[in-house]
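Reference record:
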Amino acid sequence: MANATPESSRPVTRRAWRRRLAQFSAGLLLLLVVAYFVATSAPFFKGVVLPRVGKALNAEFTVGNASISPFSRVVLRQLKVKTAGAEPLLQADEVRLRYSLWSIVGGNIKVDEVTLDSPTIQIVQNADGTSNLDPLLGKEEKPAAKPPTKPSKPPQLDVKNVTLKNVSLRAVQIFKDGGRQTVELSDINIGLDELKNGGSGKLTLAAAMKMERTQTNAHDLLQARGTGALEFALGPDLMPQFVRGKVTHEIVKGDGSFAGFSGERSELDCDVTPTEVKNFSVSFFQSDKPLGALRITGPFDLNKLEGHLKLEVQSIDRQVLNLAGATRGWDFDNSTLNATNLIDIAQRGSVIAANGKLTGRQLGIKQGKQSTPTLDLDFDYQVTVNLNDDFALLQKLNLLGKQGQNDLLRAVLDRPMNLTWGAVQPGFKESSLQLAINKLNLADWQLFLGNIPVSGKADAQLNLLAQQDGKKLQTDLTAKVQELNAQLGPNRIERANVQLQLTGQMDDFKNATVEKYSLAFGQGSQPTLTANGSASYTLNSGDLSAQATFEASLPALLRQVVVPQLNASAGTIKLTALALRKGQETSASGNAVLGDFSGRYDDYQFQNYQTTFDFDVGVKDQVAQLRRVALAVRQGPESGGSFDLAGKYDLAKQSGQFSFTAVDFNQNALRPFLAPALAPNKLVSLSLNGKGSANYDPQGESSVKAGLTLTNLVVEDPQNKFPKSSLAAGLQLDGGMKQSLVNLRQLLLTFSPTDRAKNQLQLSGKVDLAKTNAAPGQLTLQAESLDATPYYDLFAGPLKTRTAEPEKKTKTAPQPAASPVEPDPVALPFEQFTLDAKIDRLYLREIAVSNFLATVKLNHGEVAVKPLQLAFNGAPVSAGALANLAVKGYTYDLWLNADKVPLEPIANTFAPDDRGQYQGLILANAQIKGAGVTGTNLRTNLNGQVSYSYTNANIQLLGKKAKLLIWPIATLLRVKDITKSPVNWLDARIQLGAGKIRVNRFALQSEAFEAHAHGDIPIADVLDQSPLNLPVEFSLRRSLAQKSGLTPPGAPPDTPYVKLPDFVTVKGTLGDPKTHLNELALGGLLLKTGVGIAEKVGVNVGDKTGGLLKGVGNLLTGQKPTTTNDTTTTNPPPKFNPLDLLRKKK
């Protein structure tokens, strides 16, 4: 036994185990105590619990302080709940809850106190229907069907006190038209004492209400307050034993639509026991004057849900009815309503029998200047509804609405009518309900028709026949409107007659069938539009079938329905359509034909034009299918071509495939649409063919491939200048897209080659459309040679011959221009995008561009064009631009350099009628930098310089502004050669900056005259209104000056041009420059030179008279008298004194 354990060691082991257990228990207890204090601490609650709660409810919860005793009390201070929007949904100073957790765990809900102190609730509903409650409520899900459960024991409640103190509730609704409605409930105080099984309690409430509605040109205000107290008792099963009390609501202020309601009061009186409704009424008062009441009385067992109740409407008049129509601005004038109804409820609420009578006298509505006729209404009924056996028995129904002596509305039931939606209830004969509307004048009821002016007289008859013990309902409807006039936007209906006939039936309240319907629209007895068809619908399965046919004569229809810019002398419209839905498949097919249309729409003229549109589409298993969509065109008997489209689209995956084919779309189809653009030329022939396919997959790769060819394009011009040979064009497209990356593999445009160009243009590259982190994109545009002349000639057309200017009419003073506004920023859908363009040769009539090279870079709103260079008919041109469109008003840095660009090919290309009248070389240099495009910002930010000149020029002054500036000078000088002499040299130097446009130099020279101008143009807020005040130095060719006698004395004898006195100033504005002439200075010159002219032609004016005229001329021109070289006279002539003219002769 050497390995035996000594006996003395066993007690030691036992004591060690007990000591470890005690230590573990003490540690666990300490851990639980620590965990309790941590879990109930404010930091843990705010940092761990509230964020999890907020995440679960899609809201942000914050508290200023929290005090938590899990078994008995929770106190939260400065509670705030925020969802969408800037304002929090809920703010509360304090939330206090005292309860017994052990009682709740045991099945007894014991709550000593629930207090919500000074909460503020704000609900905002936007115009699109969303609100700040949406994140909290989440998506509404239908609850799963629960199996029936056995009746359970009612819960045990013991709630001592519930208090809501100083609650504020604000609800804001924003309308689509910009209107706004705000409802504020303030000073809400609600108290609930003693809510428990078998006990009695009390509910008190008080609140103030303010409703404000703001719309265009309208402001409505309603302020009210309410108080009340209700006493109640509950049985052991929580069923009410009695409810007694009164709630009062009083309007204290009304404005706008609610003006006149101040002082109105409503009182809700309630006295209900388990077996009887002694009184449940709402009474209305104006101060202490009764305005009517709604009252329910009678025996009613709350436990059995059975009873015999009487519902009365007592003398309700406009004072009460206007409250319901106030927001619409309705005034019920002298309307009164009275009603008495007896309601029997049996079989635990499953059988309801009611009969009663409603009487309305002088029922009418006023709204502003509009009003409806007054009606007297009498309505008697008796009905029984059995929810257990699924039937209703309409025993009596009589309705009569009289407008004066006219029975406007009448409904009569000939015998009791049974309506069954369950098992058959035998024993009922056929019965019919007849409803008639007689001589309804639509203009009298304009108030309900909104802003659509309508007039006409309407009649309608409805016959509802119940058959097969109420299982089948047969309906016959006839309605007609005579002399219908209406304005629908820009379209107008005039003196039309409309008639609708419909026959249908309902079987078992499950299957609805419209056996036939027809609609006729016309004038007199001759219909211009007809529509007819049938339909059926199964309620249980949702299966649907509908077919329709529509026919109209366009000339007759447009005489009654006036459509601006559309008229027709012949043509018809016919539509046949079929719609089906069976199970999960829905389909629609049909055919629309525009037949032999001759007429005009805007600038488009049609003659015997016909289009046929066929479609066959459907949806099955979330896949939309375009089985066939086809368009065919004809003009008279000649075909115009066809177009077909087919494909499918997966609604769930949002992916699809499509293909198209165009066959011989020719001149017969396109001539009406191209004629305005080609005028006065005429389209003789063309043929457009093509086909293509596209595949779209947002999760994978999308692609498109297409090819179009245009052949046999021949256009005839009246002057027979165009070549008779036909033109052609082609397009080849091959591209793809994966996610946001567009890959344009090829876009090839091909035109008919000419002697000068091959005429092929190709574009390829990649573009990333991602809004962030987009990959660099690049497109390359290139062509070896292009000649656009044949195609430009087709659409350019000849210039109109200049006609004499019409006689000027007195212009009214222009309205002051509105203050200019900087354009908003532009966010381009490109990031790090580059476009490279290279065209070796480009021709347009006499313009020849070679070595065109350009690079455009886009990065969001930043645009850079550098380089941009070309040779224009051999002259070098270079330009560049840096712009930022992402800022309001934009910033820009532009430059241009053009060296000896010939003007003649430009003029001959775009103004062929003025061929040879514009010649010369253009030299231009510009550097412009700024921010903003309005005058206010241009004054601060615009800087740069512009210089340009014309050399070796031959420019006729034919422009409107040139005539306004030059012709007044020529007229005053009586020198017509000024207007006929072409300009052969022009030079301008302009400096931009310091809030002005400085014209350092502006020189103009022709064979007849020379002009020089300079000065500053201050920039106005509207650039075109910047004022001009530029003095002009004007010189005449010496020969013209001598011939006209306009050579000033002392003019240098060797200069080719003779400077005239300063008599010309350019005034007005940049947008409307005007020539201002100083006739006085020019008149002095004429006086001075007139003497010399007279002497040359042999008229002796005399020394004294000649000296007098020359002296007046010197006075007017401000020049000193010139000295003479005549040495034969010893003494000089006496000086002329203008005052001598005023002295009397001696």
About this structure: The mean pLDDT is 83. Residues 772-793+824-933 form one domain. Residues 713 and 837 are 29 Å apart (CA to CA). The chain has 15 helices and 57 strands.
